[in-house]
């Protein structure tokens, strides 16, 4: 099968950062499905793993943890899907990714592809969808429906892949007021189109922009940007008994003290935790993808794909990684088809 590998950690400007190769088609383990990959989206995780230092002698890495395709084989103990089913999934960072014509994934973390989306539109959704559902409803416990009436949610980095999903999921599943941040006219417009009630500029002072809206604090904050530059600011903006979710690891010690008087919390979300540790509830990810699919097919959530490219190759993936690394992507970049 065709596959694209990262042979060694290299800057994306190197023509060897990603390379086209032929690999054997993998054989499913007991709970796996083998998926013929039709489309993949590109996430910052791909670039981070590509650049990460590896132990000496380690194998080249197949990246790509966001895909849609068709099931072509099922493992002996797999029962959720049959050959021919159309699926979407983010997968498991500890296994080879989906930048290959065929990819193995544990059936418990796979969802049926939303019927109203084509493969490329669907490939944009799983990784960010899982991140947002887990962050909002499992880590932060934002109330669904009327339970969040009168509450506010701030999405820092509203136009990126995660932010674009967070705005839509929050507007669909909660009654919280949704504030999003963006710094350019086109990214601000994107946040408004996705349903944000208010758009703030993260290049300008956030406290004064909140007070212009009559708010002194925010109940829930989902920070999709780097944690380090935002940690102290967000601990001052969070409301008494509020919750802040970070999705990017901090690289230095953090000061939790300001949260004490407010009984406020900080939570972490990593959507790869469940597959990585094979947690007993890892099938929740399959359930979340089913729920997301129903919301999409009901017309409540639309694809975040904004940039459709192809075919999937080392060259097109290098271009997509370069765009992702610029930190200016709006929505998702998706690659579809094989040459
Ligand atoms: N823990 C997890 O499970 C998980 C899951 C997914 C992603 N992540 C991580 O979360 C981060 C975001 O992922 P993503 O896919 O949303 O990335 P992305 O799509 O590349 O995000 C691009 C967006 O970031 C915004 N941005 C740039 N600098 C910013 C700043 N200083 N403050 C606020 N926003 C800023 C930009 O908005 P403007 O152009 O308007 O400035 C742009 O639209 C990455 O580090 C990724 O690795 C973690």
From TrEMBL:
CDD domains: AL_MDR. Residues 11-335 form the Enoyl reductase (ER) domain. InterPro entries: ADH-like_N, ADH_Zn_typ-1, ER, GroES-like_sf, NAD(P)-bd_dom_sf, Quin_OxRdtase/zeta-crystal_CS, Zinc-ADH_QOR/CCCR. Its main location: cytoplasm. The keyword Zinc applies. It is found in: Cytoplasm. GO terms for molecular function: oxidoreductase activity; RNA binding; zinc ion binding. GO terms for cellular component: cytoplasm. Keywords: Cytoplasm, Metal-binding, NADP, Oxidoreductase, RNA-binding, Zinc. It comes from the Bacteria. Belongs to the zinc-containing alcohol dehydrogenase family. Quinone oxidoreductase subfamily. Homotetramer. This is Zinc-type alcohol dehydrogenase-like protein. It comes from Labilithrix luteola. The lineage of its organism: Bacteria, Pseudomonadati, Myxococcota, Polyangia, Polyangiales.
